[in-house]
Design goal:
The chain is of the alpha+beta class. Helices cover 30% and strands 20% of the residues. It contains 5 helices and 7 strands; from the N terminus they run βαβββαβββααα. Strands 1-7-4-3-2 form a 5-stranded antiparallel sheet, with no helix packed on it.
Amino acid sequence: MWPISAALVLALDDHLGPPLDGYVNGTQTWLTDDALDTATLEWQLHPVGGYTRPRGVSHHDLWDVVISAVRSGASPDALPLGAEHRSLSSLWEGLECFPAYGAELEPAGLAAAARRLGLAAQAAGLVDHDRIGDAWTRSNRARSLMGMLLEELDQRP
């Protein structure tokens, strides 16, 4: 898992390209094959708890608008997004990478495959996605997904 930063957003764009999908809830998703070709990896840029979409930007266009602003040199604390100026941290908390489609991959293998971003991960390990997803849904998406993931890994800042 990686905390949100302009460097992370640029690394995602440089190494993974545009997301496969951008969801209404703010999540951005990529799928890649790992370096050993043993699993498909899912990369999810998780929205902040209580995420709201910037006015004037559709969920389909959010990534492109953010990348354009970051690449043009806009401050990550005041990105021009539609009718608003928003910080990068008001959109996403961070990135998680995990084996897609219920596949299993040991944390060390996953960490090695995830090095393709060129950025050191903050934390790695196994988590209960079902439990965390259920808790997030029950909170009406107000809870921090990254916080719950890090808490389960005993890595909460």
